[in-house]
Amino acid sequence: MPQGLPRKLRRLFLLQSVLAIVAVVTCMYVATLFARGQIASAWMQAEADRFWQEVAQDPGYPPPMTQSVTSYFVPHGSDAVALGVPRGFVDAGLGMHRLTGPGPSQRLLVQDGPDGRLYLRVAFRLMDRVGVWSLGIAALMAMVAIATVSWLSYRIARRLVLPVTVMAREVARWDPRQPDLGAIEPTRLPGEVGTEVKLLGGAIRGLAERTQAFIRRERDFTREASHELRTPLTVVSVAADMLRRDQDLPVRMRRSLDRVQVAARDMEAVVDALLILAREDEPGGIEDFTGLDVAIEAVEVGKRLLHEQPDPPAVVLTLVEHGDPRVRGSRRALAVILEQLVRNACTFTTEGSIDVVAAPDRIEVRDTGVGMEHDVLERVFEPFYRADQYVGGRGLGLAIVRRLAGRFGWSVDIASTPGQGTEVTLRFPAAA
Known about the structure:
Layout: H1 5-57, E1 69-75, H2 87-92, E2 95-99, E3 106-112, E4 116-123, H3 125-173, H4 195-244, H5 251-278, E5 287-290, H6 291-308, E6 314-321, E7 326-329, H7 331-347, E8 351-359, E9 362-367, H8 374-378, H9 397-407, E10 411-417, E11 421-427
Parallel strand pairs: 6-8
Antiparallel strand pairs: 1-4, 2-3, 3-4, 5-7, 8-9, 9-11, 10-11
């Protein structure tokens, strides 16, 4: 049984039942007390009226005295206490009084007649028992009735809510790229499928179809644009390499060609990343390999980048081997990520060192460059974000790095201190 809304409904109906039972039992108790008081008052008044009628016909008629009724008659001018009337009765005064004390409930009626005063006390033993049993039976029947009605109401509400719950569960399981639209068809949903559920299902299906179409357009555009960019980039790279071999080129022209070569390689890395991301829903491309060889290739790319700069910085780029990580994913994706990280380190490091550290479960790129402020570090993975104090690039590098890493379950963490350098850690999950 799906949880969430059904569970809340159960709690709601349970709370409703408890409150209803408490309210009904309380009302019945109050009504029982009121009814018992009215009956007791009427009974005692009837006893007193009958006594006065008998006394009017026979002045020697004794006051009523039974197991439940105790009464005293005091002629006018006599001492009530001397005749055995309890002091509490005498002090109570005329009228109906409720007596307190252990045992059954008791009431006292003090009434004056033509020949004297009547003290009538009644103990309601039987009435108390009848009241308790009546209240208990009525309360039990009310509880059973309320519980039955609440359970039936819950069953009806559950059947109404169940289609929405099942639909939500199925939608939560969907892969946005391949949603199972048949799972939310009204004919396949349990419970009472009403008009609202059908409208909701239709809206979800429409949204899923539009999402699929959007993903397909984005993927197709990325793939086609990447392929279209690759050809002119190859032409630019080859032409720049050929021109650079000309020994008669002036120094200014050679520096321009160096910048063209660096920009072309950066664009090739971005194109490769886009192609990998465009194929993220396609099977294949997943393999088991060692990351050390890829790290060595990234270090060679970095050394070549440093050497080709017009004014090569005083930076030492080295590979530190603490282990050979076992990686599951795309070798080309890891190469793009590491090359991008090394390029960033080379761009923002003018002196000191750059270390690429290979460990059993991660690869780190450490530099002694300019570092980053805290506010920059918080936004460094946002696409197109580039702080004003940093130059070069279009702000896509680290955004693509994180997305590529997430594609294969890898994680990217950055620690940086302004003026001291940056450390980027690429972690790999343990091999199964």
